[in-house]
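Task card 7
Instruction: Convert sequence to structure tokens.
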Amino acid sequence: MELVSHYLLSFVHTAGWLSPLLFISFHLVRPLLFLPVIFLCISGGILFGAIAGTVYSIIGITLSSIVFYLVLRWMPKTSQRFIQLKHKIVGQHVHVSVPQITLLRLIPFIHFHLLSLCLFENALSFKEYTRTSLLTSIPFAMIYTTMGQWLSTISPLYILMIILAMIPLLYVIRRKEYSIKWEEFFRFST
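Output:
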């Protein structure tokens, strides 16, 4: 694994302008590979540093959102299916504002294109959609790319210690209720 990371870092440093272009294009194929956006942003921080990785991630995320917008415009039946799925998940009468979308994008488990669909429904034009998509992706890219640069500077021993410290925390914050079926609770002997 360490050999692969050294190979990737040496490729990034020797490829010149090709490596940022590949990284940005990787953002475009990311939905087809079922990779989370956070993974790419953290990778951008590790490979390019906080500032350059943030710029490349913002460009890639915005281009990915534009492709999503174009797919929704070119395929109206698919667009309607996505909107119906969104209504089932979020609710039909729930209106999500742009600041709310900006904050929701920071949560790792909320699907990125579900929030892009909310932007699609709110936008009146392509220009407005692109602008709001760009604005909502800036804090997301900054935070997770900076986290990636931070992760690249700490030693694997500290990462292991952080993970081991989180295991008891996961046990403490677990759900502490049990569900028992009615029939099991009131066992009738026949």
